[in-house]
Amino acid sequence: MAAKKKAKKAKTAPEPKKKHAPRAAAVPASKSKKAPPQKKAAPAPPKRRPAAPARESLPAIGASEHPLVVRTDFSDPETWAAIREIIAQPVDDGFLANVEYLEDRAYGGVTAERLLEALDEGYTHSFIIVADREAMEHPDQALLVIDLDADRGRELRAVPGQIQSIENNLSLSNMEFEEFAEAVEDDGVFRGF
């Protein structure tokens, strides 16, 4: 009987718990096998302006009987006509501006620097006048006058009604470019002495 009790006890004894597969040890987040984070798209490169066309050579500006007024802006024919009309008027003393006009669209939009590069040794005048975009848009149509003599490349702006004085005095060497440059008003425009 004692053996039966033992056997009975053995039968009635709770069965040992089933062993489950061991739990995996916790893995730090940096080593977990989560899906890799989505890569952020690289920012788009900044938009570039189209490459400037190759710098075309300009027609050379050579010999002329009189100093040139070079038109580099062709946006406003009426303003250009008005500028020419003012330059053509004699001043109080009866003096005229002895200038020639260069109206070649090859010079459209050209900078003063490039115009200077286009001058060849045949252009012997001590200055050149430019009717650029700024002149066309300026309330007084102030033309760009560039020194080609003592201080090559020095610039000033002058109203069309003063071109006669500038041309006569510089062409005859009665005055120096510097004298006109020193007489500009606060806005950089020469309007007379």
Structure notes:
- Helices cover 26% and strands 12% of the residues.
- With 193 residues, the chain is of the alpha/beta class.
- It has a domain of 123 residues: Rossmann fold (3-Layer(aba) Sandwich).
- Strand 4 and strand 5 form a beta hairpin.
Q: H/E element string? A: HEHEHEHEEHHE
Distance between the termini: 143 Å
CATH architecture of the domain at 68-190: 3-Layer(aba) Sandwich
State the secondary-structure class.
alpha/beta
What would the average pLDDT be, to the nearest integer? Answer: 83
How many strands, which pairing sense, and closed or not: the largest β-sheet?
Answer: 6 strands, mixed
CATH topology-level name of the domain at 68-190 = Rossmann fold
* Total number of strands: 6
Shape: globular
CATH class of the domain at 68-190: Alpha Beta
CATH homologous superfamily identity of the domain at 68-190: Anticodon-binding domain
| Beta-strand percent range | 5-15%
Strand order of the largest sheet: 2-1-3-4-5-6
